[in-house]
Amino acid sequence: MTQPPLSQQIQALEEEIGVQLFVRTRRSVALTPAGQQWLPEVRRVLADAAALPGLAQRLARGEVGSLSLAFVSTADYGILPDLLRRFRARHPEVQLQLREATSDVQLEALMEGAIDAGLVIRPQLPAMPHGLAYLPLVSEPLVLAVPDGWRPAGAVLAGDAAVSLREAAHEPLIIFPRRSAPAFYDIITGYYAREGLVPVIAQEAIQMQTIVSLVSAGMGVALVPASLCNLRRTGVSYLALREAGPQIETGLVWRDGASAGVAPVLRSFIDIATALAQEAGAAGPAPR
């Protein structure tokens, strides 16, 4: 007599894995000890398999997954906190992997596929490197960070007064080293050159917090983005500049997905960043 199809399938499974799972008699079928231990694992695998379509749909909507984001230290005090709050509110189950890095390091990491997106200071170049898309987010002026009580020679300033770069040109300057932050370094030194001045570079530091700390210690002055005024540090004052100085533009950069498409989680992040930039008047529609 031919075995029923189910019995044939069970027998084939046992032969494939090399383990007897059932004890069969004429009147009953029971699990062997090995079968009893294997059953919970089988149920778990089947449950996971049943959940796969729903997971795929959530991934396609950008509701789950991960996003690796790098950012320049200046973004800590400007757009980054608001951007992260909005993204977390919309995508609480997406895992964010954050990494602080200078702009040039981020561009290299993007080209290598090590990160998904970055917040960078726009380089002094006509365009981003080939293969990268860029969205301007916020543009802000420079301010002069000085030790408390600092005044230009022979001048008396009110607490909120502006100064000329020329009035501070003789002061020791604290700045990022060019090897670490070429975009920011070139903006600062270019500003001095435009005003016919030569900076007296006294100290270099690779963290904005360190630069401000050195100003507090009386080691010199620093030109920093206006958002750094949110960094309250004892012994430091921030003064506006009278000249129409350069603007520091911070933007979002990612690998151009024109051919393969942009991952849903990243697309949602770009859309949130675009909305935030439009509120600040910095961006047009999100690139597609």
Concise synopsis of the structure shown:
The chain has 288 residues and is of the alpha/beta class. It has helices spanning 5-17, 33-60, 79-90, 103-112, 165-168, 182-194, 208-216, 264-280; strands at 22-24, 29-31, 65-71, 94-100, 117-121, 132-147, 172-175, 200-204, 222-225, 236-240, 247-255. The chain has three domains: 5-60, Orthogonal Bundle (Arc Repressor Mutant, subunit A); 65-138 and 250-280, 3-Layer(aba) Sandwich (D-Maltodextrin-Binding Protein, domain 2), CATH 3.40.190.10; 141-247, D-Maltodextrin-Binding Protein, domain 2.
Tell me the name of the CATH class of the largest domain: Alpha Beta
Helix content: 25-40%
Query: What is the end-to-end distance?
Result: 65 Å
> What is the overall number of helices?
8
By helix and strand content, what is the structural category? Answer: alpha/beta
Largest sheet properties: 7 strands, mixed
C-alpha-based Rg, rounded: 30 Å
Corresponding CATH architecture of the largest domain: 3-Layer(aba) Sandwich
Would you list the SSEs in sequence order as H and E?
HEEHEHEHEEHEHEHEEEH
CATH topology of the largest domain: D-Maltodextrin-Binding Protein, domain 2
How many domain modules? 3
CATH-defined superfamily of the largest domain: Periplasmic binding protein-like II
Count of strand segments: 11
Shape: elongated
Mean pLDDT: 84
Portion of residues in beta strands equals 15-25%
Q: Regions with pLDDT < 50 over 5+ consecutive residues? A: 283-288
